[in-house]
Each structure stands twice: as structure tokens, then as C-alpha cells.
Amino acid sequence: MKKILFIVIDGLGDKPVSQLGNKTPLEAAKTPNLDKLAEKGKCGLVEPVFHTAIPTSEEGHFSLFGYNAKVYSVRRGYFTATGAGMKMKKGDIALRGNFGTVDESFNMVDRRAGRIKKTQPLIDSLNEMQIEGVKFLIKAAGGHRIGIIMRGKNLSSQISDGDPHYGKLGKKAQKIVPLEKTPQAKFTAKVLNEFLQKSSRILKNHPLNEKRKKHGLLPANYILTRGASPLVKLPSFKKKYGLRACCIAGKALYRQIGEVLGMDLIKVKGADGSPKTNLRGKIQAVLSSLKKYDFIFLHIKAADSLAEDGNFRGKRDFIEKIDKRLGPLMGLKNILITVTADHSTCCVLKRHCAEPIPLLIYGRGSDKVKMFSEKTCKKGRVGKINQLKLMSILLNS
Q1: Side-chain half-sphere of 307: how many Cα atoms within 13 Å?
Q2: Considering the entire predicted model, what is its pTM?
Q3: What distance in Å separates the CA atoms of residue 273 and residue 313, rounded to the nearest whole number?
Q4: What is 294-320 written as a DSSP string?
Q5: How far apart are CA 255 and CA 80, in angstroms?
Q6: Residues in CB range of 184: below 8 A, 6 or more apart
Q7: How far apart are CA 74 and CA 60, in angstroms?
Q8: How far is residue 238's CA from residue 243's CA, in Å, rounded to a whole number?
Q9: Distance from C-alpha of 143 to C-alpha of 118, rounded to nearest angstrom
Q10: Are 44 and 101 in contact (CB under 8 A)?
Q11: Are 221 and 203 spatial neighbours (Cβ–Cβ below 8 Å)?
């Protein structure tokens, strides 16, 4: 069986942008190497799998690797909390939290409270609050982000997101509701809503927020939660597929996903997930890893972040930068190269979106597609596939 190089260009797909001549950033980019791989390979579109309002990075990656989120309910809360150094116990529920800014009617002003950086005084005022026997443990997770663990009896992860960017899309912070009619889900939603209400009252008059307002900065006066997750153990990638795998990624979330699946983590100096990330070093790490591993997961982040900022030209230019760095991979033999994304990210919407994701598979036959884009991949031999089916196609085609 051929070794597999699995390249995920985060947020690659998009909607057409009028300022780019009604092309997507990928269509507008000059990508001779990706086009060559597409021409000599097979193309298609991937339908993202998601169970919230919009696709998420964690569910997208697990689906790409063939792990069904309905079976393995590991969501963003788990990664945020454990990534912050928190230890989960059986029965705990972890949440991702954002310090955000809302007005008096709880309308969203800013999901990140002006990208607040120093939040420890706010955390100290809320940490270890207890409500109906449930303790809320909170830890900083970088900037506006916090990890939250609910610790108590009869808790469930089957609750909605409060962040209107990911849950029920809207302009207001959302009330948490149970997603199933169980006493545990109803209790968890009730307790979390009470925590959010109490936290809001404390944050509103917190000295740090008073100081921020005096300096013309947005107050961090509300916590937006999402990604409720229990402690879950997944079968390792090697156990599932019999492949020795490694992960090359700059951002913590994607390294954690690889680690949870039992992949070895390959560190690359200067790989930080930004548009200035060390792409050259990542490609060199790929070439070195091919000697030892059967499956190399290469994650490239910044196209997603640029799209979330509405920076369509930056996304186009970064895709071109990726393409240039792929040069050393073009001469590889007996390697199956796959290029796709965990989800699309739309510059016009400034968020993840449900657009089909372009896919190319090089090393298993070819079709008539001559360039790599959303529009052309639609005509490829692979067709339109469910995200959960990709690994099966790679291993059995």
C-alpha cells in the first residue's frame, strides 16, 4: 500500500468574491503545483459533516479521519480545556468559553471583547463557583479564550452552544437548551444558564472591566460557550487503520487532534499557524517523515484565519504561497497525496460556511480536471462525497 500524505488547508473552500471577479480565492490564485496534481490525479467535492449551525474545525478533522462525531462526541470544549492544562475526570463536561462583549439586551457587540489578552482577574472572580452541586472550574486558554469544566453528578454534553457564531446563528448570546429529552441534559442546561447569568452580573461591575471602559476598551462582560464534551477515549488511528501516523501542525488544536488519535507530533520551528508560518520547514518535515511513517497529516492554518477576517486577497495570496512551497513534493513517487480542507470559510460571511470542499487525490488514476478549484472539482471522477467516506476511498480505491 502506498504511503499517504494528507494535506489539510484549513478553510480552503469559499464563495465567489465580487472584488476577485466573482471568483473564490482559490480560483483567483495562481496554483501551478496544485493544478498539476489535479491534472494527474482525481478530483471531487467533499460535503462537510456538522451537527451545529456551521461546520467546526474539530468535527471536520475527525470526519476526515473517519471518526463519526455522533459516536465519538469529542468537541471543542475537550480540546480547549485540556489544551489549557486542565485534567478531566469521568463525568465531567468541558466547554470552550470566549470572554465577549454584549449590550444590556445581550446583543453581541464583539465575540472576543476586543481580543482581550489579560483575563486572569476575571477568571479568579468566577473560578470554582458552585451551583446545585456542580463546580465550575475555569482556566485561561490564550487571550479571550477560556477552558471550563463542569464537575458534578448527572451531567450531559447534549446541550446547545451559547455562542451565536456557532450555535443557533443570531445577534444575541443564546440561552443554553437541552438537545435531548433526558433529565441529565435538562439539568446541565439549567445549571449552565444560571452560571452564565451569575457570571454576567459579576463581570459587569468587575474592576478590570471598569478600567477597560475608562480607556475606551470593550468590557469582557459575558461568557460565550460552545462545544460541550465529555471525557472520551477514541480508538487510535493505528488501531483503526493499521497505519503509523504523524501530525505536522502549528496550532495547538490540530496537534491535540493528532495526539488524541495517537499520532506522533512532529515539531517544526516557526510553524505557528499564521500567514508567516514556516511552510518551508513543514514541507521538509514531511519529506523526513515519509521514511518512518505510513500516514502524514500536514495541517496548514492561515487561509481560514484570513477568511474569518474577510481578507480575501490575503487568503488568495496565502494559497499561492502554499502552492510555491509544494515544489519539493512534486517529484515524489509511490506516495498518495490528498489535498482538501476540514471545512470552507467564506470571506464575505467572515466565518465557517457549509460550501462543499475541493478535493484532489494524486497517485490513484486521473480524470479530465485540469486545475484545482471548487468549480472544476465538481466535474471530477471522485464526485461529491460525505466527509466520513474519504479515508475509505483513500484506502480502498
Answers
A1: 29
A2: 0.83
A3: 18
A4: SEEEEEE-HHHHHHHTT-HHHHHHHHH
A5: 12
A6: 154, 155, 156, 158
A7: 12
A8: 5
A9: 7
A10: no
A11: yes
Grid coordinates standing for 356? 462543499
Strand 93-102 with 108-110, pairing: antiparallel
Residue with cell 489578552: 117
The string of DSSP codes covering 249-282 is: -SSHHHHHHHHHTTPEEPP-TT--SSTT--HHHH
**Which residue do the cell numbers 457564531 mark?**
165
Q: Which residues contact 170 (CB under 8 A, 6 or more apart)?
A: 164
Helix (H) or strand (E) holding 47: strand 42-47
pLDDT digits (tens, 9 = 90+) for 267-310: 999 999 999 999 999 999 999 999 999 999 999 999 999 999 99
Residue type, 138: I
Cα 289 from chain centre:
24
C-alpha cell at 222: 459575558
Give per-residue pLDDT as tens, 60-88.
999 999 999 878 877 889 989 988 889 99
What is the rounded CA–CA span in Å between residue 2 and residue 9?
Answer: 22
DSSP state of 154: S
